[in-house]
Every structure is written in structure tokens, then in C-alpha cells.
Amino acid sequence: MSSSEHMPSSRLILEAGRADRQYWRDLWRYRELFFILAWRDVAVRYKQTVVGFAWAFIRSFMTMVVFTVVFGHIARLSSGDVTPYAVMVYGGLLPWTLFSSVFGDASASVMTNSNLISKVYFPRMIIPLSTIIVGLIDFAVSLTILVGLMIWYRFLPGWQIVLLPVFVALALLASIGPALWASAIVVKYRDFRFVVPFLLQFGLYASPVGFSSSIVPPEWRLLYSLNPMVGIIDGFRWCIVGGDSPIYLPGFAVSIAVIAALLWIGIACFRRIERGFADLI
Amino acid sequence: MSDTVIRAEGLGKRFVIGHRAQNNGLFADAMVNAVRRFFSKGKSALKGNPGDIGDVFEEFWALRDINFEIKRGELVSIIGHNGAGKSTLLKILSRITEPTAGRIEIDGRVTSLLEVGTGFHPELTGRENVFLNGAILGMTRAEVRHRFDEIVAFAGVEKFIDTPVKRYSVGMYARLAFAVAAHLEAEILVIDEVLAVGDAEFQQRCLNRMSEVASSGRTVLFVSHNLAAVSALTRRAIVLRSGQLAFDGPVQAALAHYTANTGVIARRLNWGQGSDSTLVSADLLDEQGNPTDRFESGSPLRLRVVVSTTGLPGMCVELTIRDELGLPFAFYSTGTFSQINLPAATGRFECVITLDSFFLAAGQYSIDLDTCYTNVHTDHRVESAVRFRVDRCSPGKGSFNFRQSNGTGSIAMSLKAPIEFKPIPVDATR
């Protein structure tokens, strides 16, 4: 028996503070766990509910109706000439919901899976990352409502619609950066369990969901774009309604830079705290 | 390094126990401190650092300077008292937590089983949970599918495999959980206290399965309080005591070392107290009535017990004798067996309990003491309150020394009446 056969591949040295060079490879090796955790969250989500999956429709549809009534009819915010207000609102609501559900779920995920963390090893980043799938599935469901709305208003999107996946990906990146940071921090400071929902509630009004960001005065627009969701929601709307809601490019660049910075901070912070998870949980 | 799969060098793990900064009880100061703490904590929280202004930190080494090597295919158990560092060592080995000092080299895929049913979700069916749990323990979906029927058959839950596990009985749940774990493919298997589930029959099945695993050439590290299982499954044992390696060697010698130290530690410890009665001290007495740690096989067992009581009526003293493996084999209760209770008056009392003479096999023993009222409610319990050894046991006139380590029990029976052999004619058996 030659024991040296599997030596090079599986040799592991555990030492204090040693940077784990295999981390990213491990992350890939555990991809099945990633999918199975995501599948678990999806499977469990609507168990023992009567209408089950329909909740995904009902929630996003009702929010859209409320926003249309409040901002479109009562506050009389305009949506441009051609675009129906409901489509405009929904175009902002979709990326926001994706962002907020991934951010919310992912930042709580490490705590809700604490029993796994204290008993089994795997790259911890799998846990917050796997919540992306749940968010994406809800997003896909909500997207069908958008299609329904467009048919209802006989609204035909332009060529820009093919760029929609890019903005979906951006929304995910924007949510996962802060979520990684929050999910790691919350292990030590449970305060953040309360901070995150509050931030999200606040963010819904600070982001151009119920209104178009063109109503922001031009001199403030660049500053406003520091909120990464501004660039993403604008881009999303642009994909759907085209020239009626143009992208403000300098602002978009700022949003991208903020997203990248948050992502980098999130990953670095998570990696640093992650090693102590089992001792803190 | 030919066949070493695990090598630990100077391994240590330190925990920091925080104490809140002292306050002088003044509301104003408390407010100032709270505000200051809020800011300093907020600042460190954003950076992810632990720590507070004014808080005192105490270091505690759960493991210190541990060195050992484990070769491929070895079966090693890790034993020690609660808090000796067993679980911490397992957690380091299974990469759940990282060491503070020293290093550990591992060659091979480690699968750790610190708990059965990790990640089981009550809303999911048995089938779904098998796949979920398998993935968590590091199996691929193909591997689980390949062994699925085996797993379900082993757990004996075929009929309920598509029922959510929240409807399972505790036993079914535990059986399914262990079944998944038992079918893991791993080069190095780390197991902690898994046998604490299921009924006696299932535990036996688990033991059998584990010895199968052990004999298939895999390296197994096994932590358990079940000393019988330890000695049955493994050949080498590492004894941990207060975070340090106290002994490393053949399992029998390790168990002797472990049990020999149990008494010393128990004696030094404060026994604590019960709510209505407190066992204060206990000694084994020799024929002259002096405390001893040697018992003469075949003589009456005399135990002096000092106990204090609040005078609650119906309080009695009970004892359980355990063998080297920690298995209880004899029990006596002053209340249930002899209708004798402690006096119904407040105070401290001393009594001598003299039991039947019996032939205890040579070896180590320990006695658990407890006080109990109305025969059901245990009030104060002291494990290994008394420890003693028997040097020699040869009932009758033989020179044979009957030992516990023979594995045939702890008591040599004696004969009440002579045995008479009556010849039976062959044809009478028909």
C-alpha cells in the first residue's frame, strides 16, 4: 500500500492564524453542500402553508399595488410619458426585493445555522451564499408578474431587456458584500439582528423604488448614487422601459465602485472572523 | 514519516473568559460606563474585534502542550473527565475551531461526527434529511444515493421514509441519524459520544457497526464516557486531564490510569450539597474500623458515611458499585431494601453501612453515593465518592486469582450446597 498516493492532495496543516490556502478550493469542493442548503431553505420555506408557493406572488403583487396607489395616485409622482406607473414601480421593486431578501436572509443565516457551525467543518461562506438561491427563486416568480403587467398594459420592452441579467447579478453582489460582513459580525454582536431589518426598512425609502431617481436634484445626484441600489434600480428600469428612464452614468460608476468596495470588505471581514465562529456561537 | 496520519505538536487552545468591569454601584457612573462601553464596543464591533474598555479578561487553557501521533488504521480513544479538553481536541481535529498554539498535521480526509443528526430539519422527510445530513457530513449525492437503501434498512424506518421527521419518535429519529453517519466513507473518522442515543439493542447495533468500520482499516478516533465501549472498540487510549495529556498507551493501562485518578480527584473536590441533605464524607473501613482503600475479597463491605440533613422525613442513603469500566453492577438502598431512613431531625450524622460478604474480583472499584427521599427523588448525588481496590480474589481453596480484567464479571459466586453428579442411563434420555 503506498500511502504517498493521496498525500499531496489531502495534506492539511492546522496552525494558529495560518491563512488557509485551500479555502477557495474547499469552497468549490463543497459546492454540493451549497446547493443542498439552498434546496433545504426553498423546500422548508412554504411548508405547512395552504397556498404554498403562491405567497411569493401575493407578496410582491400586493406591494406593487400599494406602491402604485400611494405614490402614483395619492402622491401623484410621475413616471414619464409612456410608461405606466405600475411598471415603473415594479421595475424598482423587483431589484429592491431581491437585494433586501438576500441581504436579510444572508445576514441572519450564520446565526440560524449555528448548530451546523459548532459541529461540522465546511467553508462557512457557503451558508450566506446559499441564501442567494432562495432570493433568486422568489425573484423569478416575481418576474412573471412583471411579464403579466407588461401584457396588461400592452407595453413592449426595448432591446435593453437582454441586459437585465447583468443588473440581477449586480443586485446580488451589492447584497452579498454587506450581508457577509453583517452575518459575521452578528455572531459576536447580536445587536445587528435588529440593525439589519431596520436598515432595510429605511433603505426602501432611501432608494428610488416608489419614485424615479430623476426627481432628485441634479446637484445631489452623485451623492445619492453612493447608495449602491440607486445605480442598480436605475439600470433595471432602463432595461425595462428604455429611454424613458435613462441611466445616469457618473452615478452608476459610483454605485459600482461602492458595490465593489463593500464586497471586498465583506469577504475580508468574514474570512477573518469566520475562524472564531465556533468559539463565539 | 511513513504511516502517520495525524501528528500534533505542542497543541494548545486558549479561551478568554470575559468579566464585566467592576462598578461601584453609582447610577451616574454606571450610565457613563454604559455610554463609554457603547462607543468602544461599537467601534470594535465594526472591526469585528472582541474587547471592551474596563472589562477584565481571564485566560483559560482548555488544551495545553498536547503531543501525539496516530498511525494509519489505528483505533484510538480519548478519555477524560468533563472539562478535560476532549471536545476541544476533537473540534480542533475536525477543523471547527483553530488551535491557539502548536500545530497539527493531518493526512487524509477527516470526517467528524460530533453529534448525530447534525442539520436534520424537522419539516423535511426522512428521505430528504438523509441527503441533507449526508451532504453536511461531506458525502456526495451519488454516494448517498448509492447507500440509501442500506441506510434506511439499518435505521429500520422504511415505512416512514417519506414522513417529516418531526413526526418521528425520538428513537426513530436517532436511528436514522446514526444510520447516515454509520455509512460515511472517510479515511479518518472522529466520533464523539454518538452512542448516547437509542435503546440498548440499537446501541449494540451501533457498536457492532463501529467495530466493522474499525476493522476495515480506517483510522478512528473515539471519545466516549462509555468505558466498556472504549475498551471493546479501541486498542490505544489517550487520557486527558485538565487540558493536558496524562497518559497515552494501551487501552487497558489507560483505563486503569483513568479510574485510578477518578478517586483522587473526587476526594479533592467539594462534593457540593443537596437541597435537604448533604453527603459530607465517606470511607471504606477495614476490620478494625480504620479507613482503607483495600478491600478483602469475601469479607463484609463496611462503609462509613457522614451526612447532614434538614430533617426531611423519608430520606435514605443509596450506593451503587461500579467496576473498572464504570459499569454499575451492585446497588443498595437503606430505604428501599431495609426501610431505614435518616433521622427526622436537623443535624449531621455518621453511620456505618455493613453489607453482605461477597467475592469481588481483583481490580478497581468505585462507589457512587446518593441521598434519596420517598425512594424516587434523588437529592444529593456524589459519583465515585469512594474508591477502592481488591488485590486478590480466590474463593474456595484454589490459587487462581479471579480478576475483573478476565472479562467474566466482577463477582465470584460461591456455592451454597455441594454439587452432586447423578449418572443418567443413556436409554433414559430416549
Please supply descriptive tags for the structure shown above:
heterodimer; A: 281 residues; mainly alpha; 2% strand; globular; B: 430 residues; alpha+beta; Rossmann fold; Coagulation Factor XIII, Chain A, domain 1; six-stranded mixed β-sheet; four-stranded antiparallel β-sheet; 9 helices; 34% strand
Record the SSE blueprint.
The complex is a heterodimer of chains A (281) and B (430).
Chain A: H1 7-10, E1 11-15, H2 23-29, H3 31-45, H4 54-74, H5 85-112, H6 114-117, H7 126-152, H8 164-188, H9 192-206, H10 218-224, H11 228-241, H12 249-274, H13 277-280
Chain B: E1 4-19, H1 27-47, E2 56-71, E3 75-80, H2 86-93, E4 101-107, E5 110-113, H3 126-136, H4 141-155, H5 170-182, E6 188-192, H6 200-215, E7 219-223, H7 227-233, E8 236-241, E9 244-250, H8 251-268, E10 277-285, E11 291-292, E12 300-309, E13 315-322, E14 328-333, H9 334-338, E15 347-357, E16 359-360, E17 363-373, E18 377-390, E19 411-412
Helix pairs in contact in B: 3-4, 3-5, 4-5
Report a brief summary of the structure.
The complex is a heterodimer of chains A (281) and B (430). Chain A is an all-alpha fold.
Describe the structure.
The complex is a heterodimer of chains A (281) and B (430). By secondary structure, chain A is an all-alpha fold. Chain A has one domain. Chain A has helices at 7-10, 23-29, 31-45, 54-74, 85-112, 114-117, 126-152, 164-188, 192-206, 218-224, 228-241, 249-274, 277-280, and one strand spanning 11-15. Chain B folds into 3 domains: 16-61, no CATH class; 69-261, P-loop containing nucleotide triphosphate hydrolases (Rossmann fold), CATH 3.40.50; 277-395 and 412-424, Distorted Sandwich (Coagulation Factor XIII, Chain A, domain 1), CATH 2.70.50.60. In chain B, the strands form 5 sheets. In chain B, strands 5-6-7-3-8-9 form a 6-stranded mixed beta sheet, with helices on both faces. In chain B, β6 (188-192), α6 (200-215) and β7 form a beta-alpha-beta unit. In chain B, α3 crosses α4 (141-155). Chain B is globular and about 65 Å long. At the A-B interface, β1, α3, α6, α8 and α12 of A face α1, β4 and α3 of B.
